[in-house]
Structure formats: C-alpha cells, structure tokens
Design goal:
The complex is a heterodimer of chains A (about 200) and B (about 190). With about 200 residues, chain A is an alpha/beta fold. Helices cover about 45% and strands about 10% of the residues of chain A. The chains are: A alpha/beta (about 200), B mainly alpha (about 190).
Chain lengths: ~200, ~190
C-alpha cells in the first residue's frame, strides 16, 4: 500500500471511529423531530389533504403517494379508497415505508389517522398527510358531491371539479339540493379558503 | 442553506435543470478518468485480473457514507430528507444477478455504457440500445411480474436498522469491510501480475 492510500485509509477509519462515538445510540429509526415544528404544521393545516386533492392525485396515477387505511379489516373489505392498503397503528410503529413518497392516512372519522400521523412524524417521516374527515369526506365530497340550489359561482366551480372526479370513481354528483343538506362549512375549505390554504381552519380530527 | 437542495427548494426548478446535467457530466468524467468506459477493464472484475470497479465503487460508498453522516452532524445536510429506496429482497437479488450477467456479457454497466458511447465506442451504444429495449420489455410484461416485483418488501430500511446496531456502528462495519476489501483486492491483483 502506497503512502497516499494509507493516508486515505487512515482518514476513513478515523472518521468511521468518530462516527461510532458520536452516534452510539441503538439503532436510530428515523430522526428526532422538533415537536414545536409539528405543532406549527398542525396549526397551519399542513398535516391535511382534502378528499378532492387526494382523488385528483389518484386519478392522475401519481406514483408518489401511498394511501393507508386505518380502519378494521371488515370495513376495508366493505369499501375503501381505490389503491389504499389496509394497515394498523401497531403495524405503523414498526413498518418501514419509503421516505420519498407522500403517505396519506385515513380512518373512519379522522382521529385514528391523526394519531398515526403523529406516530409517523415522530419516526422521522416528513411527507405524511391525513384525510381531513376520513372516509366520510371521501364519500360526501368525492362519491356524492352536492351543489345547493343557491350556489355561489365559486361553489359551482368546485362542484364541477368534484363532479368530474366523482364520475371517475363511480360516484353520483347531486346538484340542486337544498342548502340545509350541506353541513356548515361544506365548501369552506375548498372554495373559500383555496386562495390561501394555510389560513384554512383545521377541521375534523 | 442546507442540503439536499432539491428537497429544500433552494435550487428552484431552473436550478435543478441546470444542476442535473452538470452532475451527470461530472459523474461521467469521473468514470472515464477511472477507466470505467473500457469494457475489458470492467470484465476484468469477474476474472479477478483488474478490481478497479470494486475499488471505485467502494471508494464512492465510503466517501458518500462518511460525508453524509458528518455533513448531517454539522447541520449542512438533513439526512431524513434524502430519498431512500425500498428494500425488496428477492426481486432485488434477482435484479442483481441479471445485472451481473449483463455486466459480464457486455463488459459495461448502464453508467459506463453511456461513458463508452460518449467516447465513441460502438459497444457502449449497443449496450444503451439493449438497456432501452429491456426497459420497454419490462414495461410490456410488468402485469405478469408485478406480484414478484412487489414481494418480500422490507420498506426503506438502513443497513444499521437491519443489523439492529447504532448508525455509527453500521458505519464502522461498512468501513472495515471496505478497507479489508481494498487490501484483499490489492493482494489479488499483485498475485495475478
């Protein structure tokens, strides 16, 4: 071994030895997470994805999103979002998921998925999103989007977008319904808050 | 400013488009300088007459591993943002065997075939053609092989996590294997002279 190679080998060995001393904790799954950052993400609504946005990504064949269903096996068997995979919080505690993909979580309402979101973020996964109101949101916004008789122009535009997705996923868009059929805030997140998603008030979970 | 610059958005879309060919050219230049655009040199790996490929690859692994670890410790790189592919044991093992057979038959791998073609070697252009043909064939038969392609998935798991040791200890193990490999490779090459 010549002198230059010996120097390079000694440098590598020194740096590796120092690495063992600097990181001796066993073993690190993911990275440490700043909890204040997590709180800020939750406050800003950056932890959520809407059913319409999720449907759009699935329809476009976005290969960078992985949809996970946290409901029971029976509920999953009965109905699930196309392309979703059944899992549980216990499985997510040890399962290794690709870190470069976006992980979209949903449960029945949203609470269970929100707990899974925290778990995955603490495990160092950065691209994790929760479907705002769970499977109910998918059913009401994607499979059966509704438009009130007295809809505004913005609501009409959003309905057209949702109707297109609804037909793709085998749903039935309904127009001309009474506004009382739409619960308070039905359009709040999609139509009115769209210009600035960060100002969206957190809903669900 | 912390890396990876593409993930933090520091480069911007235009910056990424400019950076990609520059990195590609630099990579190709390094391979050519290491002599890896010359098929007999690459095939020599399998006959244990020239272990340049092994030494170049393990040098790259060591440099990247130690560099990434220490840059992360110094706050210049966020390792959790670095893309890490999934491990799928059987499909990747079969892929490795196929890759090795192709490597031996052609005397070139994907990167070095581009280098060889850029150097004006026809065998390099032939390998690139075969590679693109293989991609098209794989696309055509994907529905039939998808089940195997997605089997034995372990997720994005690191070497240290698999061995259940600390990341630092994982680095030590890889370094010991690499340095030991360099010593053995040097001895084999000298014995073959």
């Amino acid at each position: 071994m010549n002198r230059r190679n010996a120097t390079l080998a000694a440098t590598a060995a020194t740096l590796a030895g120092a690495a063992a001393l600097a990181d001796f904790r066993s073993p690190r799954h993911g990275t440490q997470v700043d909890v204040t950052q997590l709180a800020a993400e939750i406050e800003a609504g950056d932890d959520h994805i809407s059913a319409i946005d999720l449907a759009e990504r699935i329809m476009k064949g976005d290969g960078n999103i992985r949809v996970l269903d946290l409901r029971s096996e029976a509920e999953f068997g009965e109905f699930h979002i196309p392309g979703a995979r059944l899992t549980s919080i216990a499985a997510l505690a040890r399962e290794q998921l690709p870190r470069d993909e976006t992980i979209a979580l949903y449960s029945e309402g949203g609470g269970h998925a929100a707990q899974a979101w925290v778990l995955l973020r603490l495990r160092g996964y950065r691209k994790v999103l929760v479907l705002r109101e769970g499977i109910y949101e998918w059913m009401s916004r994607v499979l059966e989007p509704r438009l009130a008789k007295d809809a505004t122009a913005a609501e009409r535009r959003e309905f057209e977008r949702a109707a297109l997705l609804s037909r793709y996923f085998g749903g039935v868009p309904r127009s001309g319904v009474d506004r009382s059929e739409l619960h308070t805030g039905y359009w709040t997140d999609v139509a009115q808050a769209r210009p600035d998603a960060r100002s969206t008030r957190r809903r669900g979970c | 400013m912390t890396a990876p610059l593409t993930e933090t958005g520091a480069l911007g879309a235009t910056g990424e488009l400019v950076a990609a060919p520059m990195i590609g050219i630099a990579f190709g230049w390094c391979l050519e300088r290491a002599g890896l655009g010359y098929a007999p040199k690459l095939a020599g790996q399998f006959y244990l007459s020239d272990l340049t490929v092994f030494k170049v690859m393990f040098s790259a692994i060591l440099t990247a591993m130690l560099g990434a670890f220490w840059l992360d410790r110094m706050g210049l790189l966020t390792l959790s943002l670095v893309s890490m592919p999934e491990t799928l044991v059987l499909p990747q093992a079969l892929g490795g065997v196929l890759f090795g057979v192709g490597f031996l038959v052609a005397g070139l791998c994907p990167g070095t075939s581009c280098v060889a073609a850029a150097s004006g070697r026809l065998d390099g252009a032939g390998v690139i053609g075969g590679m693109l043909g293989g991609v098209a064939l794989f696309h055509a038969i994907f529905p039939w092989v998808q089940r195997f392609y997605e089997s034995t998935a372990l997720g994005s798991v690191t070497f240290a996590e698999m061995l259940n040791v600390s990341r630092g200890m994982g680095i030590v193990l890889v370094t010991v294997v690499a340095l030991g490999g360099f010593a053995v490779a040097g001895r084999i090459e000298r014995a073959r002279l």
